[in-house]
Amino acid sequence: GAAAGAGGGARAEQQALRGTLEWASMPPVGIGTIAWGDESYGFGTRFREKDLEDVFRAAVGGGVGWFDTAEVYGYKSGQFEQSAEHMLGHFVENASTEARLLNGAGGGLPEAFVGSKVFTVPWTNVIMGGGVRMGRTQLVDAGKATVERLGRPLDLWSIHFPFPTYSQSMYVDALVEAMDLGLTKAVGVSNYDAGQMEEAQELLFQRGIALAANQVKYSVLDRKAQRSGLLLKCADLGVKLVAYCPLESGKLTGTDNEGDKKIAELRKLLEFIGAINGGKTPTQVAINYLVCRGALPIVGCASVAHVDAAAGAVADGWRLDNNELDTIDEKLD
Question: Which among 146, 150, 194, 215 is positioned nearest to 174, based on CA atoms?
Fold first, then answer.
C-alpha cells in the first residue's frame, strides 16, 4: 500500500511540474518514422514523400497522430530535405496552411504530436554537421537544428540513448535548456534502464520539470521491460513507457517467422483472441496488449494500410480483458 501511495504522490506532485503531458487525452498508439527518408527501408523505391504525406494525414485523421522521429532517421536524404524530420515538417506545415484556409470552418486536420530524439555519440557531427558532441551546448544545438528542420517547436525531445561517457546531469542540463529556450514542450529519454531513468527523473524533478517518457523496446515477444520492473517503475514515477519495435520488425506480422514454432503458436493464440473480438488481426491484438499494459506502442508506418491497422488496434476504445492478457502471458512464460 505504501509504495502505491508514494507513486500516487509522485504523480500528484508532477501536476505542478513543467513539461507534464496529459497522456489520457493523447492517441494510445503512435506512428514510427525510422523508415522515412531511408533508402535501405525502401524510401524512393517502394514509397516516396507523397505516400508518407498520405500516411501522415491518415494518422492524424484516424486518431493516431502521434509521431516519433529522430534527427538521424533518413539523414542521408537530408540534403534533399527528405529526412524524416524534414518531411514531418512539410506535412505539419501543409496541414496548418489548410486549416488556416478553411478558417476554422471545420474539416481541417487536428494538430499532430511530434517527438524527436537527439543522438549522443560524440562524432554524430560527421553525419549531422555541427561540432563534436562534447556536452550540453552541442546537444542543444542539435535540438535547435531539429526544430529548424521541423519548422516548429517539438512536443517531446528525448535523449536517444545514454552514451556511457557522459553523466546524466549533462543530459538533464541539455533537456532543461531546451525547455527554457522553448525548443520543446516536454522532455524524455530513450533506452534507459530503471536506474538511469530514476536518476534522470530525480535530476529533472529538482529543476521543476517532469520526465515525460522513456522509449524502450517492448513487445509480446520481448517483455524485458515488463519482467525487469521497468514498466512498474515508469508507472510509479509517472513516466510513460513508449514501446518501439512492438511487432518485432515483422516477426509478428507473419512476414519474417519461417520455422519458428513458438512464434507460430503465439500467432495462433493471437488469431483466436482477435477472432472472438470482432475479427482483429494478430498484429492488432499484439499492439493492444501493450496499450493494456500501460505502454504507448510506436508502429512503423510507410503506407496507409499500416496506419489503418495501427488505428484499428485501439479503435472505439477496444481493450483486451484481463483474462485474455493473462492467457497471452501464460503462453509466453
Answer: 146
Q: Which of 22, 21, 51, 17 is nearest to 36 (CA)?
A: 51
Catalytic residue selected from 41, 73, 75, 171: 73
pLDDT digit string (tens) for the chain, length 333 residues = 344 444 444 554 545 899 999 999 999 999 999 999 999 999 999 999 999 999 999 999 999 999 999 999 999 999 999 999 999 999 999 998 888 887 665 556 788 999 999 999 999 999 999 889 999 999 999 999 999 999 999 999 999 999 988 999 999 999 999 999 999 999 999 999 999 999 999 999 999 999 999 999 999 999 999 999 999 999 999 999 999 999 986 777 765 555 678 888 899 999 999 999 999 999 999 999 999 999 999 999 999 999 999 999 999 999 999 999 999 999 888
pTM of this prediction exceeds 0.90: yes
- Mapping DSSP onto H, E and C, the string for 142-206 reads HHHHHHHHHCCCECEEEECCCCCCCCHHHHHHHHHHHHHCCCECCEEEECCCHHHHHHHHHHHHH
The phi and psi torsions of 211 (rounded to 5 degrees) equal -90, 110
Radius of gyration of the chain (CA): 20
Number of Cβ within 10 Å of residue 141's Cβ equals 18
The DSSP 8-state label assigned to residue 74 in this structure reads T
* Dist CA 126 CA 257 (whole Å): 36
Establish whether 166 is a catalytic residue: no
Name the grid cell of 192: 534507459
Cell of 270: 493471437
In the structure grid, which three cell numbers stand for residue 130, read together?
555541427
